[in-house]
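User: Let's play a game. I give you a shape written as tokens, and you guess the letters that built it. Ready? Here's round one.
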């Protein structure tokens, strides 16, 4: 069973940056397509970025040009660098495979506010 542990969230002012990390279990991590998702209470979880096993990336329109997803397969870790943060980026952020498994980690809260 694959498990995910997200970290790196926090409170940041608009225009600021945060870097999220996700440690994943599973010896086949290197072949997974991985994604970062976010969820606001009362709304559906949305995919914000994904990365294939060879490093091809895709981004939601709302974050393209501001967020960067990357991975280190030797460390079973996927990252999300978030720059130029906006209040509307406030959410709980999760990583999972793409398409996602039914099991999710605890997520990490990102709050963008002055």
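Assistant: Ready! My guess for every position:
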């Amino acid at each position: 069973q694959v498990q995910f542990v997200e970290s790196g969230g926090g409170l940041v002012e608009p225009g600021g940056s945060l870097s999220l990390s996700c440690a994943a279990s599973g010896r086949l991590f290197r072949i997974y397509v991985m994604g970062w998702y976010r969820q606001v209470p009362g709304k559906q979880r949305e995919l914000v970025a994904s990365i294939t096993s060879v490093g091809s990336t895709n981004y939601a329109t709302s974050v393209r040009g501001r967020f960067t997803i990357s991975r280190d397969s030797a460390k079973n870790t996927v990252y999300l660098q978030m720059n130029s943060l906006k209040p509307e980026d406030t959410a709980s952020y999760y990583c999972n495979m793409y398409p996602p498994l039914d099991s999710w980690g605890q997520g990490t809260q990102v709050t963008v506010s002055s």
